[in-house]
Specification:
This protein is α+β, with helices and mostly antiparallel strands. The strands form 8 sheets. It has a 6-stranded antiparallel β-barrel. The protein has a 4-stranded antiparallel sheet with strand order 2-11-13-12. A 3-stranded mixed sheet has the order 16-15-23. Strand 12 and strand 13 form a beta hairpin. It is flat.
């Protein structure tokens, strides 16, 4: 358990090692260059008896009836098809930036009713809409399902992964392009993935050194304005140069992040502790009850009774105390905690106590 705590902290040290240079393309995004979400509703056919139960999913029958009507097939109103090989599904996809009509994108298909499995099915033509209601892509194709499920006659079941969800690589053809804002205005805005005033300042300085003084200016701690050529060809080449410039990001804020569900603790490299003494120990309280029979003396007229004898045992485990001196860094904290044999749960309690005492110079985040 101690190795787990140490390994997690070492990962934090590697992630926050000083002096690392990153490309601007890895730490910032051009405003207006973004993805868009698409969603649609469709039918998957060709299932091997694992489709929707029509008695519990009437909209599946309604959708199939409407589709057949569009194809010139009329289903009598007094007939309710008993479908086992059809499933109603939701289809969603992400439309990347700059994708043009005729190109293809991947789609994800999920059952929205009670279909047991989509394995072996094919998605019929499905329109994918954006939030503005416009159709941006058309999806169709055979599903790839990684999960499967098996039911036995005795009611037992075996399921691996999720058989009610699948993907279709390149399953949608783009029909409409999203207008780009890249060519608008005389400047582009770079938005930092992790807002920081120091990083924003260093990014601005890097751009000014790389493309010319005065080219970049700071809007706030998350955005930098960069003057760019108005010609689109020159602007693309200009952004290619800018995104490959190197920047030394600022060190991360002093934070201690605790996952209350898994017990994982991550401590950044800038965490320090003011002078404090911490005692760690364990207290075990055992209560044991024994029943005994009380027998009266002969001819005394008393009655035989059952009595309970309680025994309480208090066991104090090995207690340890260690002292944090001024300016203690991460390595010393971990070493001290590991020496007393603290588990991740104990480490959480120690850190919370240090924060309450005002000795922890970091932000404590519990997720």
């Amino acid at each position: 358990m101690r190795l787990k705590v140490l390994a997690v902290v070492l990962l934090a040290l590697v992630a926050t090692a000083p002096g690392r240079a990153e490309r601007i393309k890895d730490m910032a995004q051009v405003q207006g260059v973004r993805t868009n979400q698409l969603v649609g509703y469709g039918l998957v056919v060709g299932l091997y008896g694992t489709g929707d139960q029509t008695s519990q999913a009437p909209f599946t029958v309604q959708s199939l009836t409407n589709m057949l009507a569009q194809l010139g097939v009329t289903v009598p109103s007094n007939v309710t098809p008993q479908l086992k090989n059809v499933a109603a599904v939701s289809v969603h996809a992400v439309l990347p930036a700059f994708v043009k009509p005729g190109q293809t994108i991947d789609v994800t298909v999920n059952s929205i009713a009670n279909a047991k499995s989509l394995r072996g099915g094919s998605l019929l033509v499905t329109a994918l809409h954006g939030l503005d209601g416009q159709i941006y892509a058309i999806a169709q194709g055979n599903l790839i399902v990684s999960g499967f499920g098996v039911d036995a006659n005795d009611g037992s079941k075996l399921t691996v992964n999720v058989p009610s969800s699948g993907r279709i690589p390149n399953g949608a053809t783009v029909e409409r392009a999203v207008p780009s804002q890249l060519a608008q205005g005389d400047a582009v805005i770079l938005n930092l993935n992790s807002p920081d005033f120091t990083t924003a300042t260093r990014l601005m300085e890097s751009v000014n050194r790389g493309v010319g003084a005065g080219a970049a200016s700071i809007i706030d701690g998350a955005s930098i304005r960069v003057h760019a050529p108005e010609d689109l060809t020159e602007r693309v080449a200009f952004l290619s140069k800018v995104e490959n410039l190197q920047v030394d990001p600022a060190s991360a804020p002093a934070r201690v992040i605790i996952n209350s569900r898994t017990g994982t603790v991550v401590i950044s490299s800038n965490v320090t502790v003011s002078p404090a003494a911490v005692s760690h120990g364990s207290l075990s309280v055992t209560i044991k009850e024994e029943q005994a029979v009380s027998q009266p003396l002969p001819f005394s007229g008393g009655q035989t009774t059952v009595t309970t004898n309680s025994q309480i045992k208090v066991d104090t485990g090995p207690s340890h105390m260690f002292l944090f001196k001024p300016g203690v860094d991460l390595e010393q904290i971990v070493r001290a905690v590991n020496e007393v044999g603290a588990a991740p749960g104990d480490l959480v309690a120690i850190l919370e106590a240090l924060r309450e005492a005002g000795a922890l110079q970091a932000e404590l985040i519990v997720i």
